[in-house]
From TrEMBL:
Native organism taxonomy: Bacteria, Pseudomonadati, Pseudomonadota, Gammaproteobacteria, Moraxellales
Biological processes annotated in GO: biotin biosynthetic process
Pfam families named in the record: Aminotran_1_2 (PF00155)
Highest taxon in the source lineage: Bacteria
Any one GO MF annotation of this record: 8-amino-7-oxononanoate synthase activity
Entry cofactors: pyridoxal 5'-phosphate
Species of origin: Moraxella catarrhalis
Keyword vocabulary terms for this entry: Acyltransferase, Pyridoxal phosphate, Transferase
Coiled coil: none
Protein name: 8-amino-7-oxononanoate synthase
InterPro entries noted in UniProt: Aminotransferase_I/II_large, AON_synthase_class-II, PyrdxlP-dep_Trfase, PyrdxlP-dep_Trfase_major, PyrdxlP-dep_Trfase_small
PANTHER family in alphabetical order: 8-AMINO-7-OXONONANOATE SYNTHASE, CLASS II AMINOTRANSFERASE/8-AMINO-7-OXONONANOATE SYNTHASE
EC number: 2.3.1.47
Location of the Aminotransferase class I/classII large domain: 41-389
Length: 397
């Protein structure tokens, strides 16, 4: 091997030696089941398909019928500012705007949204205050913003007392004109939920503050019409940037931001991932719009998902395991890597696909099974899974 390749091969060896080397698995999806590396079908408790939309064969067929009536290209050929703006984009934005009662701007993904919006709206007179546990895409957005001279500060996870002090500090600082609070509504590793009412009240303490909330795990899963935690808490109007992704509960692809018309216009003019990347295919927009129409009416499914989440959290607490979750993302925090991997393996033997999450994704000593519930599973399957968990982690392995 050449010296150049050796450099990377050595880095890979180092990853392997600390059990942090990642690779793709050969996966076959069969409805709510998944086959890994040609193994037996396992109940999939690791996907973000919270309402079973992505695996719903009937919805898929129904959408194909729609496509027979409307021509929806499989490619957009350019950015929306050039020739890539199709009717389907305008229609989906109008549909979102009408549901939220505020303007909407679409992006290629949630990742694009987070790495694009923050650097676009922040400058050397801006401070970003971000929760310690925000998603990697928000962290990358902050890094890019820092290149514009933006100051970035992380506060302890959900520590609003500390956040309040930070707001007061930067409110009093004359060199700071804008303070952006960046958080998630449902956190992706702990499954806990931010009190958005409290955040909105913190925001109101200073005219400088803008709220930026990532609802990637909440859109579709929360709120009477599935618009997310902002709908659930009744604060859609009070959040400056409601950001989300269609790839999870919506079973599609893409990102969005709900914001003021001025900010929307500003993003169209300044946000690099929007300007310099080919827009998603019109067929993707049409599918998202189709799902959105369905999801608004899936209130019963959302209630059932919430009840299932509660059932699992209660079962974990009964097993004397700590459980921070208040959502469909339910971590089983076991501590050591070895114990966690062993538990994931034992569950696999019993027919359940659950992923083990280890540092650096989560803090050291907090390795965990990360269970992502889906409404697609039956009550019996849920009960069977809880019994399996009891066998695997209940007795303390
Ligand atoms: C998944 C996720 C994203 C990224 O969204 P994509 O559409 O998958 O790029 C952003 N933020 C959070 C909190 C996420 O969980």
């Amino acid at each position: 091997m050449s010296e150049l390749l050796n450099h990377y091969a050595d880095k890979l060896s180092a990853l392997k030696s600390c059990h942090n080397h990642r690779q793709f698995q050969a996966l076959h999806h069969r409805g709510r089941f998944i086959c890994v590396n040609d193994g037996k079908p396992l109940l999939n408790l690791a996907s973000n398909d919270y309402l079973g939309i992505a695996q719903d064969r009937q919805l898929y067929e129904e959408f194909l019928d729609v496509l027979h009536e409307q021509h929806q290209p499989f490619g957009s050929s350019s950015s929306r500012l050039l020739t890539g703006n199709f009717d389907s984009f305008e229609r989906l934005e109008a549909q979102m705007a009408s549901l939220f009662g505020r303007p909407c701007l679409l992006f290629n993904s949630g990742y694009h949204a987070n790495i694009g919006i923050l650097p676009a709206i922040c400058d050397a007179k801006t401070v970003i205050l971000a929760d310690k546990l925000v998603h990697a895409s928000i962290i990358d957005g902050m890094r890019l913003a820092a290149q514009n001279g933006t100051k970035t500060v992380r506060y302890q996870h959900q520590n609003f007392d500390q956040l309040k002090l930070l707001i007061e500090k930067y409110h009093a600082d004359d060199s700071v004109e804008r303070i952006v609070i960046a958080t998630e509504s449902i956190f992706s590793m702990d499954g806990d939920v931010t009190d958005l009412v409290k955040l909105v009240s913190l925001k109101s303490a200073s005219q400088k503050v803008m709220l930026y909330v990532d609802e990637a795990h909440a859109i579709g899963a929360r709120g009477v019409r599935g618009l997310g935690c902002a709908e659930g808490y009744g604060v859609i109007e009070q959040i400056d940037f409601i950001v989300g992704a269609f790839g999870k509960a919506m079973g599609s692809v893409g990102g969005y931001c709900i914001c003021h018309e001025v900010l929307r216009d500003y993003l169209i003019n300044t946000m690099r991932p929007l300007i310099f990347s080919t827009a998603l295919a019109p067929v993707n927009m049409a599918w998202t719009a189709f799902v959105l129409e369905k999801i608004v009416n899936m209130t019963q499914a959302r209630l059932r998902l919430a009840a299932m989440s509660d059932q699992l959290s209660q079962a974990l607490i009964a097993m004397r395991l700590s459980c921070p979750s208040a959502s469909q993302i339910v971590p089983v925090i076991l501590g050591e890597n070895a114990r966690t991997l062993k538990a994931a393996d034992a569950l696999k033997q019993q027919g359940y696909y659950v992923l083990a999450v280890r540092p650096p994704t989560v803090p050291k000593g907090q390795s965990r099974l990360r269970i992502c519930l889906t409404e697609a599973i039956s009550d019996d399957e849920m009960a069977g899974f809880i019994q399996a968990l009891q066998r695997v982690v209940g007795g303390g392995v």
